[in-house]
Design a protein that fits this description.
Order of helices and strands: HHHH
Distance between the termini: 77 Å
Mean pLDDT: 89
Low-confidence stretches: none
Strand content: under 5%
CATH class: Mainly Alpha
Number of strands: 0
Length: about 100
């Protein structure tokens, strides 16, 4: 008989309103996934987001000074972004961006 430490998966039980289950089932169906897979992926993604938000970054005083200098300095233009900003939006006439 396997002990609890040998298990690779652990069950989680939740009580949800019927409307929440219906919404989850519909979204899972649109993705071609099972309810379990859909909820597991969503929960893991949310957990990763929280953990990344609270990640501590350590650096030397010299590294921090260089980082702050880079942030404080002038921004270098990115040619692709400049070209994109000059283009007209699809719903605007072509001459609007040239003003």
């Amino acid at each position: 008989m396997a002990s609890n430490t040998d298990r690779k998966e652990h069950p989680i039980s939740m009580r949800l309103p019927e409307a929440d289950i219906a919404m989850i089932d519909r979204a899972a169906s649109l993705r071609g996934r099972s309810r379990t897979d859909f909820v597991r992926d969503a929960a893991v993604r949310a957990a990763e987001d929280v953990l990344m938000e609270n990640r501590l970054i350590r650096m030397s005083p010299e590294g921090f000074a260089g980082f702050m200098a880079a942030l404080s300095g002038p921004a270098a233009p990115v040619p692709e972004m400049v070209a994109l900003a000059k283009r007209s939006a699809p719903w605007e006439p072509d001459d609007v961006a040239k003003r």
